[in-house]
Amino acid sequence: KKDIFIFGIETSCDETAAAVIKNGTDIIANVVSSQIESHKRFGGVVPEIASRHHVEQIIAVFEETLERAGLTFQDMDAIAVTKGPGLVGALLVGVNAAKAIAFAHDLPLIGVHHIAGHIYANRLVQEMSFPLMSLVVSGGHTELVYMKEHGSFEVIGETRDDAAGEAYDKVARTLSLPYPGGPHIDRLAAEGQDTYSLPRIRLEEGSYDFSFSGLKSAVINTVHNAEQRGEEINPENLAASFQASVVDVLTEKTVRAAKEYDVKQVLLAGGVAANKGLRASLENAFGEIENIDIMIPPISLCTDNAAMIAAAGTILFEQGKRDGLDMNGHPGLDI
Ligand code: KG4
Ligand code: ZN
Questions:
Q1: Eight-class DSSP state of 92
Q2: Domains detected in the chain
Q3: pTM for this structure?
Q4: What CA–CA distance (Å, rounded) separates 144 from 36?
Q5: pLDDT in tens, 91-103
Q6: Could you tell me the distance, in angstroms and rounded to a whole number, from the CA of residue 42 to the centre of ligand 1?
Q7: Is 297 in the pocket of ligand 1 (CB under 6 A)?
Q8: Atom 3 in ligand 1: which residue has the minimum CA distance?
């Protein structure tokens, strides 16, 4: 059987990324150009700046990807690109670049859902076994996704307000930490103790939905109350307390969902999957459950990249799914 080479493109937020993946599992080249430095002074991603950076970077990122792979566009079987969700101006840069290459080289064009990409980052590490449950935690998403087979996604729970990563970034801002705050909170949490009693928000009994805005407000109130009383807060302990609350709820619901849906595997996906506290808690919880494997990708594959988009795109390619040159970017695309 002939090898399948897919060229992946990701520009949904603040990383301009391209990759070449062989047979859906082997990383041949994976290039990520981050814009974090340009957004830092604004404390978050500025959409207009993100789009402009993508335009400036994308050709160089493509060239470097092909050079590292030692391949050309003629060697590719298809072009896979994130078509949503994300910032519309940012998405359109990748989508239009993908269309141009597909047209120029007469290659199939495949639009990929960003979250499907995050989940498929796992396939670059180990084969997936079904049925499985994926906990997707990123700056824009917090979802439990049930998969009974390749390409089938059922969202069984999601956040009703802030995404987990968003809560991390907002709490970090309250503690005057730089953007993106997740890794900084994670680092501080490792040096502190869970001493502030913060709520665990579980919603109705049996629900797989999440809510993080109340927890975020509780942290902000803790900081303001301390300021008013002229007391110092302990940032390490506050970070540890916040992280413990997030990790407890994520772990609890993931374990319950995995058992109820009787899955073989649990996959962690998205930028917050880089969190050391969450990784340890899930490994610990599933280490004690027989017959359910936990899979956690390396940190470089957790945050936005194009290898995961090409990996998810390979499945769509094999299933015969194609998009036309009229494909658009979709900021609020459902999985
Ligand atoms: O998946 P991603 O790169 O972009 C989105 O699709 O949103 O996720 C970025 C998010 C940010 O909110 C960032 O603070 C968070 O992931 N993040 C972390 C850690 N590393 C990145 N959150 C907690 N702990 C970390 N170590
Ligand atoms: Zn992402």
A1: H
A2: 5-120+302-318 (3.30.420.40), 129-296 (3.30.420.40)
A3: 0.95
A4: 28
A5: 999 999 999 999 9
A6: 17
A7: no
A8: 303
